[in-house]
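Morning!

This is the sequence you dropped in the shared folder:
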Amino acid sequence: MQDNTDGIFRARPIQKVAALVIPCLASLPIMVMPFIFGAVIDQVQVDSSNATYATSAEISMIALASLLVSIALKVLPPRLTALIGLSLAAIGHFLSIGSTSLEPMIIARAIAGFGEGLCMGMGFATLAQIIGGTRLLAYSSGIVAAASLISFITVPALQSHLGSSSIFWFMLVVTLICFPLFIWMPIAKLKQLPNAAGGVYALFNIKSFSLFLVAFLASSGSNTLWLYFEQVGHSVGMDLAAIGKLGSFSSIPTLLVPFVANFIFARNKTVVPIAVACLLSGIASYFYGAPPSVIAFCSVVVIMSFLYVFLIAYIRMFSAHLDSSGRTTAAVGGADSLGMVVGPLVAAFTLNLTTGFSSLSSFGLALQSLCVIPCLGFLFYKASRHTRSVGNA
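The structure's back. Tokens below.
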């Protein structure tokens, strides 16, 4: 696998916009999943445990579609794949609006999730192949954060007019706005792939698998803690309004992530910043479940939010730097989504949170600490290859 910071083909500005905006807005449902979760409960009249089936179906399909793109990238036309993804997402959101029972809602969210996963996988893979696309991958996190902030403001305002289905109407409109952009997705991009191992075999090497594993573990730890954000907030004396304001405020510093990530990446194209961000996230996780005060909890939430967005952005950039085919970048997106399903599921079966959230902190700390292992494996592999190359010289 080549280290390539320049990409494979030169794209027009409108192509860069399409490849950047489509996957970013397709990622939006992940960020507004609390709204979707609440809408499922209100609209189909089920409890939270049953509503989880619908949200898990969506996230699972996002992960599956992203991984399929990374495996079958060589045979997928970007423009057609984006069109199919946007169409499925729109159909899924439209069906969700009219769903009145759990089974149709699960199917609708699964359809939307698969479409979103196709857009995310193909869009980020395209950015990895575009010359200069590595820098654009950092800006993807800022766009998602800005879109999330708009969502947190807009969706509650729409609820008085559209009811519990307002989030599905909002996502449908966002998807339709993105539709014209598929026209500018490249057609012949995959013809310019370098000669390298294709399909699933391209992902089973130390570098790609290490980044996949880090994204999966970091996502599992961070998103499991975020799942209990409201409950932990209540435990320190915050009401629902204050918790909502904190959630909105925590997304504001993440708007700086593109600039921070590009600044660090320009000076340190290694796995070290990833390991440092994981360790800092682990420390923040330790104080998340049992904060000594409201101020401490708010500080930890803001820090965790920033570190998570930075970590995923930097892993995407670094994966594009290592693998300009885009396969690893698409797989990282799948790993991120997969962690959102597996982490909370493991926590639900293993943790006892009836008496407090200290075990939740330990869970997050453990997963973030485990991220260091693939990072060390990556560094060891790189050092051993350098030693062999020097010995053969």
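Headline: The CA atoms of residues 7 and 131 lie 4 Å apart.

More detail when I'm at my desk.
O.
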